[in-house]
Design brief:
alpha/beta, three-stranded parallel sheet, Fumarate Reductase Iron-sulfur Protein, Chain B, domain 2, 9 helices, 2 domains, four-stranded mixed sheet, globular, Rossmann fold, 9 strands
Length: about 220
């Protein structure tokens, strides 16, 4: 295994060094500072955010939290409930690199990326926020804890869902972003997901709501 990792490391490092643009997601975004929080264990994300001259972060609007303090908590909760606590890396990006070493005058850029761009994705999220039931699903932090305790997911795995979304949380997101009600139909309402969710989302209630919406359709709704 170590030999395999060494080969992959050598191959990927060359790609990182030569890349003009690094593209990442975001675990959380702080509204007050514009900072992006990224959590990982391998170190690939950190390399992606510092080696190329341009860093582009793409994330759903539900990732925006009021303050930097709020945003720093979310990745820790996510990693803890995913069984990966403590995470090896928690990266904080607040724009192009800068320095104030000379006469305390802040100058941009310094080392690292010279440009930083944040792309916010709606894709049904804003409309879901206006729905009293679906709004709750936007609290999901994608920790995947519900997968571990769902009897259906344990039986059939990630074929339950609409890629890239799977499991109980995926059934909610499949409807929000794609208008697809079919994944919700697999839910047997054991309630395990609700009990272990760190955000206390009533996932069975949300999925029952989506099921009812799907009864009057062919599985696809023009939700957007």
């Amino acid at each position: 295994v170590e030999d395999m990792v060494a080969v992959v490391r050598k191959f990927l490092r060359d790609k990182f060094v030569k890349a003009d643009v690094g593209i990442t997601g975001a675990n959380a975004i702080a509204a007050d500072t514009g900072s992006v929080l990224l959590v990982e264990n391998e170190g690939n994300i950190r390399f992606t955010t510092v080696a190329p001259q341009i860093h582009i972060a793409i994330a759903g609007v539900e990732k925006i939290l009021p303050t930097l303090a709020d945003a720093m908590i979310e990745p820790l909760v996510q990693s803890a409930y995913a069984g990966l606590y403590p995470p090896t890396y928690v990266n904080l990006t607040s724009g192009p690199s800068s320095t104030a070493d000379i006469e305390h005058n802040r100058v941009r850029p310094a080392h690292g990326p010279k440009e930083f761009h944040l792309i916010l994705v709606d894709n049904g999220r804003v409309k879901a926020n206006k729905d009293n039931i679906l709004r709750e699903a936007l609290l999901c932090i994608r920790c995947g804890r519900c997968h571990f305790h769902c009897p259906i997911y344990r039986a059939i795995g990630n074929i339950w869902g609409d890629p890239p979304y799977s499991g109980p949380m995926g059934a909610m997101w499949s409807y929000i972003v794609k208008g697809d009600t079919k994944p919700a139909m697999y839910c047997v309402h054991s309630g395990n997901c609700k009990e272990v969710c760190p955000m206390r989302i009533n996932i069975p209630r949300v999925l029952e709501y989506i099921k009812n919406l799907g009864l009057h359709s062919k599985g696809k709704l023009d939700y957007k």
